[in-house]
Amino acid sequence: MLVVPNRVDLTTMLELEKALGGRNRVAWMVEVSVGPGEAIMSHIQQTQPTGFSCSINQQGRDYVLSKVRQYLESGRHVVLLPGRPLQSPASLADVPGYLLSLFDSTPLHAMPVYVGMYNHYFDAAITTCEPYDCLHISLCPPVRAGHQLGARVQAAWMSAQVAQLQRHPLLEHPCLPQMLVEAILRHPERRLLDGVDDSELTYRDLLSAAVMTTGVIERHSAAERIGIILPPGKLGVIANLACLLAGVTAVNINYTATPEQFDHMVKTAGLTRFITDTRFTNMQRQFAWPRSRDLIYLDEELGEQGTWKLKAWTALGKWRTPQQLMQHADVASPEPEDVASIHFTGGTEDKPLGVPVTYRMLLAAVISLRCRLQLGAGHDVLLSVLPAYMPAGLVCGILLPLLGGFDMVTYPMAAAGKRLCTLVQQHAVAFVANTPAGIRAMLKAARDGRALSSLQYCLSVGAKLSAELAEAAHQHYGIQLLESYGTAEALPFVAASMPAPAAPETTRLMLPTARKGSVGAPLPGVAVRITGLYTPEPSATPSRPGLIWLKGPAVTRQYLGISNEDSPRMHGDWFCTGDVGYMSPDGLLTVMGRRVRFTQMGDEMIPHVQLEEILYKIYNVPQEDNERKLAIVSVPSRTGGEELVVLSTLHKEVIPSDYLTLRYGVTNLHLPASWAPRHILPVKYIPTLPNGKLDYQTCYIGACRMLKIKLD
Q1: Domains plus CATH for the chain?
Q2: pTM score, whole prediction
C-alpha cells in the first residue's frame, strides 16, 4: 500500500512505523526537492531505515513509480515522507500538488494518513509543527487507484481533519461565555475604539457594560431570543456579548432589508423584543421599525443605570477571579449544541432562511480563522466595519478581537472610505474584512499607499472580488487584497486567500497561499466536496467544475423551522452551497458562481458572471461594485433547453447591429458563438438584494414576462 501522510515529524515517523507493522514493513520515500526536516534527517542518518530518495524533475515519473513498485512487491508499505515547505499557518498538508499528482492514473492504491497537531489554548489551537500539546494520527480508508488519485487523497485528509477537530478539547465541552470572560480579564486593558466619536472603552469596562445589559435583557424580555438592530460600534458589541453571557439567542437583523423581508425574519425567528439605539433609529428612518414599545433603547438603559454601577462592576472584575465573577454575574453555562445566534441568508433565490448557529459553531469558526492569521495579541489592531448580521461581522469584528486579545476599532459604515483610511492610519490597523465596494471606497480615498501600509490582511467578503480591483490595489498601493468565500451556513469563511509568508534564502519549497481567480485554501476544519450538478455523490474529477458541498464543526446541519428531509441542500453531514467550483491539485478552491447563474448548452457550462465581465469589456464600460449595468439570466427556450438573455441599462432600444456587436465581441475573444446572448432587453435598473448581490429571481421573472414566456 502506498501510504500518503499530510505531514510527518519525528514522533509521527516512529508512530507510523508501529502502526504499519514495524520497521521491516516500511520503506520511506523522500523526494529531494521537498526533503524532510533536520530532526528526521538526523534520525535517518543514525538508524538508516529502508527507503529511497528520488527527484521527479531529474529522474522522471516512470523511474519514481518503478522504485515504488519495487518496494511494494517486496512486501513493504511505501510511505511518502513530506518535507517542511513554507506555507500558510494551520495548512492542510505539507505535500505539494505536483507530488500528489504523480500517482494519478497509476495502478497504485493509496492510504491517506492525516496527522493533526493541536494545542489546548486558543491562539494556536491548530498548528503544523512542534511544540504542540497533542498529536492525532488518523489512518483513512484506502483510496482506489485511478484518475485524480491526489485530489481524492486531499479530500480524505479534509474529512479526517474535520473528524479530529470535532474532538478538540476546546470544542468537546466548549463554554463560549466562560472563554470570553477569561479572555477579556486576561487582556483587561485592550481597548474598543469607537471611530464615530473617538471614545475608548477598555475590555474590562466593556465586560462590565455587557453584564449590566444582561440585567436589562432579563428585565424587558423573558423570551429565549431577542433581536438586535444595531450597526458596528460599542453598543453592538455590548449587546451581542450580553446575549452570549445571558444565554439568550441573538438575532442580528439586517437593517437594510425590505419591510417584507423584515417581517419574514421576525416571524421565522419568533421575535417580540429588539435591542437598538436612539440615535440609530433616527438615522435609519427608511427601515420598517417595530413598534416603539417593542424596542429596548440600550443607550438610554445604560445611561439610567449610571456610571457608578459600571465602576462597581469594573472594580469587582479587578479583585475577583473569572469564575467568581461569572458566578456573581450569573453568566450562562450553555451546552455546546445550544443555539447562540441566528443568521439569515441573503435570499439570493428565495426568501431569507434562518440558520441556527450553536456555541460550538461560533467557537470553531473563530478558532479556524485565528489559526490561519499571523497576528500578535497585544499589539495588532483589528478594524470592525461589517454589521453583525453578516457572519464575518460577528466572528471577525466581535469574537476574534475579544478572544484573541486585540484592540478593535469600530465604524458603522463600511463604504466611508475617507474615514476608514484615517482610522487605519491613525491606529495602525493590521486586519480588516470589508465588502469589495467598501474596499474600493477605501482605495479611492487613500492618496497613496502609506495610508493603508499597516494592513497585513485586507479581506474581501460578501461578493466576488473583481480582478480589476485587486490589480489596481496591488499596482497603485502595494496592497494584496485577499479574496474569501463564505456563506451564512458556514461561519464565517469556507476558504480565504492569505499573503505569502516571507521566504528566507534557505527556503527550498513554498506552497501557494493564493492564486488569481481562486478564493484560497479551505480553512482548517472545513471539508470541501465537489459533486456533479445533480447528485450529492463525490465527483471522480474534483478539478472539474461541479457543485460545492461542505461539512465541518462550523457548518450548519439544518435551517430554522425546516426539516432536513424537506431541504435538498442537506445530505447527512454535508451541506450543498448551491455554488459551482473546483479544487486545484495544490488545494486551492475556485468558485465560479451560483448554480442558477450557469446555463448548460450541450456539454458546455456557460458562467453568467464571467459572461457579464466580457460584456462590460465589449461595451467598454467600467464595472462598478455599487451599480449594475448588465445582468445575464437564463430563460426557457421555445425550441427546448435554455437560452441566454442580457438585461441592460446601457440600451434604450435595440437594433440588429447590437446583436452583431455581441456575436463578434464574443468570438473575437476566442469563445464559442453560443456565449452570445439571444436577447437584449433594455431595463431602467438591475434589481439587487440588500446584500448587494443580483436579485436573480426578480430578473428571471422580469425577463420571462418581457419575452412573454409562461411561468410555471
Answers
A1: 2-146 (no CATH), 175-362 (3.40.50.12780), 602-706 (3.30.300.30)
A2: 0.89
